[in-house]
Design brief:
By secondary structure, the chain is α+β, with helices and mostly antiparallel strands. The chain has one domain: Outer membrane efflux proteins (OEP) (Up-down Bundle). Helix content is about 65%, strand content about 15%. The protein is built from eleven helices and seven strands. Helix 4 packs antiparallel against helix 5 and helix 5 packs antiparallel against helix 10. The longest helix is centred in the first third of the chain and has 67 residues.
Length: about 450
Amino acid sequence: MNSHVHAAWRQLLPGAAFAVAVHAAAAQGATLTLPDAIHQALANNPQYLSQQLEIDRSGSAVAAARAAGRPQLGGSASAMRFGYPTFVHGIRAPGVFPPLDKNIIDLGLTFKLPLYTGGRLEKGIVLAELGQQMARERERLGVQELSFNVSTVYFKIQQLDALAQVYAARITSLQAQQRRAALMRDSGKTGKLETLRIGTLLTKARHDRLQIENRGLEAWTLLYQLAGSAGPEPRPALLRYAAAAAPMPSLEHWRQQALSQRPELQIARHQRAAGLAREDIARAGNRPEVVLLSGLHERSGGDTHFYTDWSVGLQLSVPLFDGGLRRAQVDQAATARRQTELALQQVRLEIDKQVEDAWNANAEAQSRLLVTATSIGEASEALAIETLKVEQGVGVMTDVLSAETALLGAQADRLQAQFDIITTRLGLLRAAGVLSPEQVVALVAPQGTASEAGTKGDKP
């Protein structure tokens, strides 16, 4: 399990829908399929749901940035009492003195329209839209990570379950050999040392199986946490899957896919564009700003007789001197933009290495799967020969135990190779940025049987 899985394990909180679905499956003896597990995780995972909300939040930021360049209309109302008589309204005609009053009531409407801002508003919209695009890419990355993590844990549970069954068979065989060795010792055909060795191997096999069962319980807990729920009891069965036959494109194909599809690369590109937009906004601080202002007011004294007044005009703001503040802000934005360019180069290098590593890991898994098939055949044949030699009285129990140990190791390697085949293919899709729930389902084929949710202890 990779670091992303453990990070998700620490961060996720329980949800209700997945628990209801799994409780129902467990109660009815149903099987939890891989698509169901991924679907429930996408529906209830708190971290993923937060990423979806981030898209909504960034959409609101885009709307706010666009609204900043539109006309603004406001209303005002005030009732003031002054210490000395004050003009109720301005001079309307030559020689006509306006009325005075200590109580002034003012009702008004104001209109404001930015005409020129040096590009600040336009770049603000660009910056908000880039933020929205980054939020969408992070959400797409969340889908890939969640699909990969749920699938990896799902198959890890099956691998551990199968491995526990292998150890159960090993324990049963050692118990039978322990009884046989006791009989042979009583008849003087074997020594105490072989009996002690069988006991040691039996104790170790029981301990190893206990560890496997505990890792299985931890994997189940992690699966529920990825799906945003607390695990039910009893646990449902899992449908068994095997790697489906699939063509394997070239390494260059995966590299091209990654360059066009990886969410992290798209985010880095948007961050570079955002850095450029911030630099333009900082430079726009040196440019003038022109705003259209207009107002309509109704003013009255204590007699509540209202007089209409209005105003309209242009407001020009020109930055003259600020002690070097704007220059420093431009330099800061330019440095930040350069950092985003370097970050983009680093992401490209990392992605290229990740694709190559995933490609090599998949090739190694395929090779290891072929090797384990041969190893199991050889170990099985060696065990059969050593067992026959003991039955005919020409062999020793030590050789049988060594052959069984070799077969156990080969079987464990086979299970690990089968797990690695699937997970490395998933890892290759993730490295290329094209992993999706549909791709996960296409990579595996149901075997038609379900693995049980737990393992049973051996009988002494």
